Amino acid sequence: MPSSRLLSLLLASLMGCCATLSYADEVSVAVAANFTGPMEKIAPAFEKATGHKALVAYGTVGKFYAQIKNGAPFEVLVSADDETPIRLEKDGLAEAPSRFTYAIGKLVLWSAKPGLVDDRGEVLKRGGFQRLAIANPKVAVYGAAAVEAMKKLGVDAALESRLVYGENITQTYQFAATGNADLGFVALSQIYKNGQYAPGSYWLVPPTLYPQIRQDAVLLWRGKANVAATAFLAYLKSDAAKQVISAYGYEF
Amino acid sequence: MLLNHGDLQAIWLTVRLASIVTLILLLVGTPIAWWLARSKAWWKGPVGAVVALPLVLPPSVLGFYLLLAMGPNGPVGQITQTLGIGLLPFTFWGLVLASVFYSLPFMVQPLQNAFEAMGERPLEVAATLRASPLDAFFTVAVPLALPGFLTAAILTFAHTVGEFGVVLMIGGNIPGETRVASVQIYDHVEAMEYMQAHRLSAVMLVFSFLVLLALYAWRPSPKKGA
User: Fold this and answer.
1) What is the DSSP letter of B140?
2) Contacts of B73 in chain A (CB under 8 A)
């Protein structure tokens, strides 16, 4: 009897010690590559405002989906689309009621060279460039949007042989930023900060030319009991976060 | 159908890339290995270290610097533009050049070991029989180092087949041009086409196993004597 009481005491103290070491105020967040810029501002602000810590991983949503399905310890997904969160809900891996659109993405045609891209996108018809970078349309919403826009403009067939595909929108930007591709379809958030466009030339693709890029965030089942995860999603809806998000050119 | 058209195209491209890279490295790597095995120059150390760099560097570092170097403002890009071949990223030959860097140690190191294991003696004997250095190299050194050549060629080929990070950085994922098998698998996974990813991955797995099996089965027992 005394020994079992000792054992339970030991166990209890062990559990107590583990609880203080646990991830109670940490939330692990998977973030779509196009949202890297704003998230780098939002995560520290969230930490400052709530005292919780956000561990952020950036990448492509397809990769996150595979990882989450196979047990990756992410608690929140900040997606580049609305399909992947819905798919995760159907798989029973995400909490449906928590899903919301945190931003509507904007597609932009951008070149690091000044004067190459005109403000009507005529450069796509006119030519005068070698390589056009887009995100792989099979896996990235911004890539799919770019293909749709080119189709609507009737230039998709003519440009096909000049396309190079970035693995995600970050790499697509990299191809264009290093000048290896003369221009590229990127996310507005990558070249727009606080009312300022990055050097070069750009054309804001009219939203009528591509399907709306609804970017949803969702609570994953692993984050269900984590107060930091719920707090993080709440913070993403806050005015402070919205200010950052719109400063990068996203809409709501 | 086990594999779709895109998969077969990616495999063919991969085999073509690996074969060309292996041939180029046989030509480029052999003199480097020979020099490293024979030289007593002080810069032998630095050269050996440079050759071994791809073993240590993450492919992302290599790919990133190659992208900058081969870009319009990079030194390689300036040269290729002056020569009128344009820019190398997003082309098959750009991949070849990158893979030559990437697979260099897999060619040089086994060859260097083979040349070193051979020792000075056979060449000295050949010299006393009035064989010219070149003659001695082809009639004495190469046959003696043949197992080393075989190992080096197989490792180079296999390593180039397995390349992923570098081609992802500089390839641009163009079907039939730069989309190799490893990237095709990554795309399948990203697109949540897990069945297709499984099939192509299984092909790669079996291939890799067979290559290594061949390597271990053919490799003769370690040098006697020494």
Assistant:
1) I
2) 178-179
Q: Three-state SS for B80? A: helix
Contacts of A181 in chain B (CB under 8 A): 90, 172
pLDDT digits (tens, 9 = 90+) for A106-145: 999 999 999 999 989 999 999 889 999 999 998 899 999 9
Kindly provide the ipTM of the predicted complex, given to two decimals: 0.77
- Locate the chain B residue with the closest alpha carbon to A170: B169
Beta bridge partners of A251: A104
Q: Quick one: chain B helix, strand, coil %, rounded to 5?
A: 75, 0, 25
Contact flag A165-B191 (C-beta cutoff 8 Å): no
Q: How many CA atoms lie within 13 A of B119 on its CB side?
A: 8
Token pair 């050996």 is at which residue?
Answer: B48
Nearest CA in chain A to B184: A167
Whole-prediction pTM: 0.81
Per-residue pLDDT for A2 more than 80?
no
Which among B190, B194, B198, B201 is the top mutation candidate for probing chain A, defined by the most A β-carbons within 10 Å of its own β-carbon?
B190
List, for residues B5-30, the tens digit of each pLDDT value. Answer: 999 999 999 999 999 999 999 999 99
Q: Are A184 and A52 in contact (CB under 8 A)?
A: no
**In Å, what is the CA distance from A78 to each residue of A30, A57, A165, A215, B86?**
6, 10, 23, 8, 40
Coil, strand, or helix at residue A110? strand
